[in-house]
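Bug: token stream looks shifted between consecutive jobs. Job 1:
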Amino acid sequence: MALFEEEMDSNPMVSSLLDKLANYTNLTQGAQEHEEADDDEGQKKKTVKSPQMGTFMGVYLPCLQNILGVILFLRLTWIVGTAGILESLAIVGLCCSCTMLTAISMSAIATNGVVPAGGSYYMISRSLGPEFGGAVGLCFYLGTTFAGSMYILGTIEILLTYIVPKAAIFVAERKEDEVNALLNNMRVYGTCCLALMAVVVFVGVRYVNKLALVFLACVILSILAIYAGVFKTIFEPPDFPVCMLGNRTLQNNNFDKCLKTDIVDNLTVTTRLWKLFCDGTETNATCNEYFLNNNVTLVQGIPGLTSGVISENMWSQYGPLGMLVENQKLESVGGSDPAQDIYLPYVANDITTFFTLLVGIYFPSVTGIMAGSNRSGDLRDAQKSIPVGTILAIATTSFIYVTCVVLFGACIDGVLLRDKFGDSVKGNLVIGTLSWPSPWVIVIGSFFSCCGAGLQSLTGAPRLLQAIARDGIVPFLQVFGHGKANGEPTWALLMTAGICEIGILIASLDSVAPILSMFFLMCYLFVNLACAVQTLLRTPNWRPRFKFYHWALSFLGMSLCLALMFISSWYYAIVAMAIASCIYKYIEYRGAEKEWGDGIRGLSLNAARYALIRLEEAPPHTKNWRPQLLVLLNLDSDQGVKHPRLLSLTTQLKAGKGLTIVANVLEGTYLTKDTDSKKAEQSAMSAERTKGFCHVVVSSNLRDGVSHLIQSAGLGGMKHNTVLMAWPGTWKQSNDPQSWKNFIETIRETTAAHQALLVAKNVDSFPNNQDRLGEGTIDVWWVVHDGGMLMLLPFLLRQHKVWKKCKMRIFTVAQMDDNSIQMKKDLQMFLYHLRLDAEVEVVEMHDNDISAFTYEKTLVMEQRSQMLKQMQLSRTEREREIQSITDESRNSIRRKNQTADESSNLSQQSSQMEDTQEDEVADIVIFFITPSSLSSRNPRLSSQNCTIFFGPEHVHMTWTKDKFFTERNRNRDFNTNMAMRDLFNMKPNQSNVRRMHTAVKLNEVVVNKSQGAHLVLLNMPGPPRSRGGDENYMEFLEVLLEGLNRVLLVRGGGREVITIYS
């Protein structure tokens, strides 16, 4: 393995990898922290046992316990009576189909790799990314927390309504106050119950887990008691009569006999029922008219399975708040007064009922399918157990719900089904009246079932919040990632208890149920979306062991979840989606960046590829043109941005739209500059928080690097069309002429590439993105038409908040032959058609005589250029040239076939010269140069004024060191004097004089009109075709921009970028 020994750190041996995988243990939440705490205390580290739970104990039973609960015992009979059997089956079918499709999608995700502790949150976040994962994870957390509220409210409702009604603190003196009294009792007792449960969870979760089987046994026994009671009704229906007045159901709480009068000792006496409807006990007392006109009858509340009552319960009986529960088959004589009925002991609707409300109330009874995946860290084989256990649990509970709906409708009379709290059967739980051997089996079983479910919610929700907090995707939740030494989430438990208290203060089970339905449906929706996205993208890592899935099923489940959200409660659905959207955007902008290989990223890549291919089909239309910027940045030695305001201008120009490529060139080779290039990328993108892409090129020289960027930056249709750079402000002071030569070559290359060019002068004085400029102007000097860039850029700038208050002014230049008035009218009309608001002014520039100042400025410019050309070589360059001449001499000597004497003489001289160069103490330097090398290879030698002796084949020059330096200085002074004499005698080029004249006059006009403007936009003249005048070109631009603060030079790309057409 010696071939790979240098790569062992990054690429381990296969044997090492397999050993790590074999020793992998999927720790439950908090186990690792518990071990670390024990280790800190000096105790021996405990050995963590491998998870040993199988499908039945680890997934099937927990799902069964979480699915079957409070709604089954407290509300299912009322839902069947209100919606009827057919619509109840539709509700059950919709909700169970939704959870089954979600379970299929969840099974595919859960079997696509190892699922650590964290369950559903882990699956969603790693499949859809941190933004969706955080949003849905928090929704799932809120759903679980409100589920705890619902279970606690169910516990208190059972306690105060069916077990110890006398324990109520608030007692209603009037019938119309009963609802408020019940709600207040629920709030008080619910808060106490929540505090007690929170203490239990805080003290020890192990007790909750140990009691889980007890609570599950209560649920199973209660269901068995229901089925036993149903079959018993075939032979011996239980005796639970319902007292009816006419066709109205009476509350059987305050009377013992369903009679108006009774015969006692042969005397007719009034009953307690008489007192409820009359103002006295006498037979001649004034009574309610409906009471007098209708008879009192007893109806068997549970006629039995073979009674045929199923046909009466097929259809729905929806109604408004306060609607009386009636049996339409019984006779009823009029005389009722709705205003007085609410004070009489009738059974009535406590809420307005309709189909969608019942869907929202019922849906929590099918939630809990994530219980198995939440225990994934405790399973022996999660990839096998989660799909099998979850789907079997849903199938089992769906069968139980469907059969219960049919059996309830077939065994119980409709009026008793619609009696939510069992007031017509002396306050018994309606489902309890059907059970065998006693109603107390259901009452006690449902009580402990709700207690257990509430404890499980208070146990699971804090751990889910802790998992989200520890992922670090939501910064403000990080405090909830801490807990006790053993990992128990103390702070998360307090937060959960606080949110749970909100649900308890709502106090109504029917109002809390739709809230948690929204959050669970949101979670299930994104589980289906995750599976569908991964399946359609065919990600290489998408290889689930569970094969019975399809993207169409996932989309159907997702659609069903969305439909159920709006069916249940459209306003709750909007609120839940708004909460999820806010969390999503918060994580996107503020949260920590995570890369989990999620499906949304893969979807984005596919969408980007498709869009890029479509963009390649045709060039963009003028109406769609916007500056796609390539920003050429300069970095300092520490890889910091020299001009960060250039990036601010970039953001302001594109107003958050369009493409931005921030580019930089590093000189060197990529192998040595790899780290610097990455640091440069980070520096460029972090400055001013620019949104876009960074492109750092490592090149042997700056010129080639910029050329490569202009040619190759971007991809496909997403290529830049505009180059933005800063004006080289120090080009005059720079000793290196490459600074301004690179600038001019960049202008030439952007022109050749048909790209627009923007050059910002004094860019450090430009506003940043936090500045707000006051009222002022953006002045456009439109000298030549280059596609309309000058018109478009101010409009784009004014879209940004920095330049929003600025007004746009357009100046154009008129020549002697132009009609200024007509030009102004035409320009105003042109701007009108362009839908641009701007002031227009035409400035007349006459061809005045060239001033002496202009002539002198041109002369100084040309003299400076000539002096730069005549500057002598530096000392190092001279020595390098001497060395090259010496090397050439040696080569020439060795190639010649010399005579013996000449060879001896030459060899002595050559050896003498080599010795003196090695010792660096030579007094004589000897050159041997062929005539051809003198003329062709070293033309500068003549300027050295060396003493030259032409021999038959060589040139023999012998200089002492003193003579060499004396001669060099003498000739340097002579050449300098000659050059100065030429400079003072030269005359400026007339073409340069005209250009300088234009620059001076235009500068005077611009400074006069626009010196106080916030920004000046000006046409940028093109560089000369001949590179010999590049220095003069820079001088012309310098004169043109003199005295102006913020200037943006604009050079069009050769195409129209603005149009008058819609």
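Job 2, same session, no restart:
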Amino acid sequence: MSEAGLESRLVHTLAVNTARPSKHLFLSPSFQRLALASWIKENICKKECCFFEKDGSGDVCKCGYAKTDHTDEAIKPEDFTGESWNIHRHVREAPTDAFGDISFGGLGQKTGKYARVSTDTSPEILYQLLTEQWKLSPPNLLISVTGGAKNFYLKSHLKNMFHRGLIKVAQTTGAWIITGGTHAGVMKHVGQAVRDYAMSSSMQGKIVTIGVATWGIIHNRKALVHPEGCFPAHYLMDTGNQGQLSTLDSNHTHFLLVDDGTHGHYGVEIKLRSCLEMWITRKWTGVTIPVVCVVLDGGPGTLNTIYNAMLHGTPCVILEGSGRIADVIAHVSGLPLIRVTIALIQQLMKKFFGQEYEQFSDGKIIEWTKKIQDIIRMSHLLTVFRVSEDYHGDLDVAILQALLKASRSSEFLEVECWNRQLELAITWNRVDIAETEIFTEESQWKSSDLHWAMFSALAGNKPQFVSLLLENGVSLRDFLQEEETLCELYTQLPSCFFLRKLAKQAFGIRPRACREQGEKISLTYVSDVVRHLLGKFTQPLYPPSTTTDQLNMSMDETSLSLREDSPETQRDPGTDLFLWAVVQNNKELAEIAWEQCRDCMSAALAASKILKKMAREGSDADDAEEMRELANHYEKHAIGVFTECHNSDESRAKKLLVRMSHLWGRTTCLRLALEADDKNVIALLTQIWCGKLSVENPVWRVLICMVFFPLIFTGFLLKPMKPLGCWSRLMYLYTSPQVKFYWNIVFYFAFLFLFAVVLMIDFQSMPSAGELLLYIWLLSLVCEEIRQLFHDPDGFGFRKKAKMYINEFWNILDVLSIVLFLIGLAFRLTTELFYLGKIILCIDFVVFCLRLMAIFTISRTLGPKIIIVRKMMMDMFFFMFLLSIWVVAYGVAKQGILIHNENRLDWIIRGVLYEPYLIIFGQFPKNIDNTEFDMNSCSVNATDPLKPKCPVLNENQSPVFPEWLTIIMLCVYLLFANILLLNLLIAIFNFTFEEVQDNTDKIWKFQRYELIKEYHSRPAAPPPFIILSHIYLFIRSMVLRRPPKIYKEFKNELNPTEDEELLTWESLMKDRYLVSARQEQSQSTERRILDTLIHFPLSHQVSQSTKALQWIMDSLKSQGLPSKDTQSRNETPDSFRNTSEKGSGFHVYSRQFSYPNSKLTRFPVPEEKVPWEVLIIYLNIIKYYFFPPQSHQLPLLRKNPGGRTGISGRGALSRLGPNLSVELVFEGYVDDCRNTDNAWVEMTVLNIHLDRKSQVMVDINNTVTSSVLQREE
């Protein structure tokens, strides 16, 4: 083999390889172009004339090309001497010389791909060119747009709806749009739609628009020719000089330029385009690609396209109002066939075609009438898109309806047919059509049959379809029964914060890389990330996967211990789906899934916690705000359900609040609300605060009983919860959190009183008895703080518990007061630091007094005010920083101007900071004004330590400082410090007050919960007697090694039966809450309607509508259009088809254009010309005999009893007249496609009762023969 041949072979091999997807093969663009050129030359051909014969005058061949466009062999052929030019003989194929990239220039530099192909090119080769060489993804839908090839006018409303609907279909389905490809007519409108889509910044992706045009009619096509391909070819759209030719449309992405070797002949591409469309839609890959034909305007050629497409089962969508043949079909589509007459078609064609109608012959009108009647008869394939003022649907709805109608009548199995319809509806997110057209009584769906649809709706974010599927029998338990389904859903998560953390946790890579590598996400990783978001106080939601690599043995042992400690619980599919929707911040899907949750309150609170955590850790501010809004939404849901529960059954509601949820990491609603900082939910029940005492007891009664405890045996306290013994009553009184709190307040006041007495009266060098008691009292307080630090009933762990302890403001004051007391105590025990120790203890007394404010947290009125004070203190801190700038600036300037070289630090601080600060409160200095200056108030040389240094003096001992400057500086300082900054501080305080005041109830409930929880676990005895309880607890836990007491008031694990009953009741309350919420929403809607009616009374609206309808009726009558026609126009096509079939009874298959097993075409016989009694002039009637006729059959010509068929003779039948056949269902004339005017098929019914003993096989032929002979007579 030659070197050139080897090179060509190598290039071809690599070209084939590049067409196949490979993960490791990366080729340069230049080599890819070389490979593409090699493949196209190998597989794609063009056509060229090989025999030049003049066509009349001039050097133009009968092929249409000029003499200069022919080769020398074609001008002087040796093989065709003496022959006449024939397209089948004198046009040959040759390797194509026009392919590559096409650039249209202009704004945006639009580029595409093109190839010149022969009319005989295989559709399979063209599909390979599109998908393998041009790298197009296989389509999910094929949209063939046909119609007028010349420019026509579309109304702006219809044009916009066509553009919007076409692009919406192509974008949502990944469809290919196939047109004629030129910049005229319907192709131009499609191009404009694609252009508008490309210019829209809100849309992404590229619409595949393939133009299949005739090569011989393309203007400026020489720019596309190059033997090695053009990359790119610069094409000029010169519409002004194109003449009878056409230019390519710049908005198409790909062009197939069909060449038959002629020039100037339109319609060459129709056959190849039809073959390509049919080949794409066949089941060559096991998947049927639907195709739909969209028609705008059009002439007779478009009518043939519609007719042939519908004969092949392709649904067609006709746009009414687009013009010509489209309007003709649209106007008769709703009429019965008996009314679609030749006269009507003539009238409509004359109306819509205008002057063009004069060119139509009577024969053509009859043929077109017949075709239109056949088109109307196939109503399941015909959809008319009508635009009216009260209809605002787009073209995409009409296309979907057309495909749904066609799929019902297809040859698919019933289940496959319904699945295909549902797939189309989901792809386009048309839940309204799915509800009315698919989920009907005719369709019988099983839950398992819809699992694929549920997955598609969830992964595609179609919440309305998820609701529809759940309503129609999809079981979430069956759908999520396999763990792989949920794992795949997490793999298909959209790009979000959770997916990034999940991918990093699982693989340490980006989410996109995870998808590209095909990695699946285990639920173990999901559980780890969710536990991080919920908090470490929860246990893993999902057990560790058995397929996960056991890299960390300690982790495995821990998880195993967790599984052993906790009973095995079955997952709730609603909870799984709700969590999947929440982590992606999808409100619609989360709302649907929340309604399916069993433990709805815990789910709502967990969602609030997760969303708030993601909002804090996320980097996107907009996403964080949406997460916080959704968190508040589910906080309201939790409040609403709990309110319904509390109103229905208070005891159950309390139990629901503290029950341990196995579905959410063995935590409680109360704990989740605390972690999520949901102050609305943390409204702990008053019964826990009162303990075993009745909640109806007023506070004063409880206070009296605390002192005079025998009163509890007299009934002084109202109604105990149940009859109790004397000792039980006494114990329940003093162990109540309410009583503990009151005793602690009393003894805290006593502690402060003792502390004050010691500091002011009894502070000796040797501690007195009162001071020693104070030390013991403080020791009990220290022990209590240590107990609170280590008391961990929820299992937080010391680190988490210590962090929570420090984060509490009152605990900080406790620690600070204790530390200061210990420091002061250490100092006062030494002789040198005795007085300093007392000073520190005095300061500590202030801190202890501030701690007293915590008692007001139980008050609904004063509790929020403490928060206001705390927030104002923070505001004050930032304000002091701002104020210090002015104070220091003025103080340094004043000190430098007045005093010369002051070296005493204490007086420098006084002059720079203290005096400017006092000026704010009205204490103005006297040394800045000569009129008030006193020499006795200062020391000249700073010799007196009790007096400030005098200002700079002159010889007369008077100040020399610029008095005008110091006064101006003081005025400016007072203006900014006193007026501006102080009013700013007041405004800040006012804002803080209003902000907290608006949330007073929330803050009070949250503080009250914290206080009740603290005193619920606190020992009953107040300090200092509480130290006895501490000694008891120490002996119990450290010496006796007994486990700590478990309090069920805040966390209670129910038995399975009780837990199931409680969740069932909660689900019922949730349904009540949702119903009431929807009623409130509907009532608000009704209120808006009523407001509208108040402004616009109904009588006024009715009168206006009546006037408008009357005007419409008058206009219609003036135009001569009776109401009966309007009524018939509004009837459904199905009813007309039934009426037509029942009324006419004419044969249909016997009048098909193409006669079977032949290339013959019948004469078109419309409905009205079928009966023999109706006169009709046959033009070019064909007499056809499949077998040569015998002489004795010629005089026996008989007329078809069903009427005319459009062809005479015997046709493909065996004899003239009736051709009998046996059928067990039908008897009489048969509408057979082989029927002719003189030969037809008839059937007879034989009702034979056979006896097993009879000789059936002997007599059957005689019986049939005698029956046939009797019928002929």
